[in-house]
């Protein structure tokens, strides 16, 4: 294998890794090195999502194995690292008056309905295979993957955005 081929392969690999990660509106503007791998795009929403005992992780009434895995992984992470134990709740629709976290691919009906209702584009073309969108509001955190891998990568970014500030947890 020639040096030129090694450099070309490494460049292609790095370009692909950078292209699959898209991070849309998040709580705070972050320095590029704060999230690994670095997101392709990031914008601050200017709003805190407070994590406390009133937050629920919402899953569809009939969740997929991936929906259950993502919800349980986040619940375990919050419990192990911060002593916070959010409930995982099966819901048919999201309640705008409650603080909820929704994770999944576009095949998850909660993700699909919220994304469509708020003009958030998530598909195999945008942000692309293994891509995701992470959207944060005062009452909602949405991790919407273009596929199951994208949803998993979005969860990994969300985990890195949890901060302990002012005696509480925020995203």
Please trace the helix and strand order, writing H or E for each element. HEEHEEHEEHEE
Mean pLDDT: 84
Share of helical residues = 25-40%
Q: Kindly estimate the percentage of residues that lie in beta strands according to DSSP.
A: 15-25%
Distance between the ends: 45 Å
Q: What strand line-up does the widest sheet have?
A: 3-2-4-6-5
Structural class: alpha/beta
CA-based gyration radius: 16 Å
Give the beta-strand count. Answer: 8
Name the poorly predicted regions: 3-7, 10-33
Main sheet specs:
5 strands, mixed
The geometry reads as: globular
How many helical elements? 4
Written overview of the protein:
The protein is of the alpha/beta class. The protein is built from 4 helices and 8 strands. The strands form 2 sheets. Strands 3-2-4-6-5 form a 5-stranded mixed beta sheet, with helices on both faces. α2 packs parallel to α4. The protein starts with a helix and ends with a strand.
Task: Please provide a brief summary of the model.
The chain has 171 residues and is α/β, with parallel strands linked by helices. Helix content is 35%, strand content 20%. Mean pLDDT is 84; it is low at 3-7 and 10-33.
Describe the protein's topology:
Blueprint: H1 3-20, E1 50-51, E2 56-60, H2 65-82, E3 87-91, E4 100-105, H3 109-117, E5 132-136, E6 140-145, H4 148-161, E7 163-165, E8 168-170
Parallel strand pairs: 2-3, 2-4, 4-6
Antiparallel strand pairs: 1-8, 5-6, 7-8
Helix pairs in contact: 2-4
């Amino acid at each position: 294998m020639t040096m030129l081929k090694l450099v070309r392969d490494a460049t292609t690999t790095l370009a692909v890794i950078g292209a699959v990660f898209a991070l849309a509106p998040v709580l705070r503007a972050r320095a590029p090195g704060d999230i690994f791998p670095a997101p392709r795009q990031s914008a601050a929403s200017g709003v805190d999502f407070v994590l406390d005992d009133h937050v629920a992780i919402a899953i569809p009434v009939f969740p997929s194995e991936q929906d259950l895995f993502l919800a349980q992984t986040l619940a375990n992470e919050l419990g192990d690292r911060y002593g916070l134990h959010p409930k995982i709740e099966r819901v048919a629709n999201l309640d705008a008056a409650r603080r909820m976290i929704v994770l999944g691919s576009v095949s998850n009906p909660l993700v699909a309905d919220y994304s469509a209702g708020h003009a958030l584009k998530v598909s195999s073309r945008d942000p692309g295979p293994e891509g995701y969108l992470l959207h944060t509001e005062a009452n909602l955190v949405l991790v919407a993957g273009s596929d199951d891998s994208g949803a998993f990568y979005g969860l990994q970014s969300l985990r890195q955005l949890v901060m302990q500030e002012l005696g509480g947890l925020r995203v």
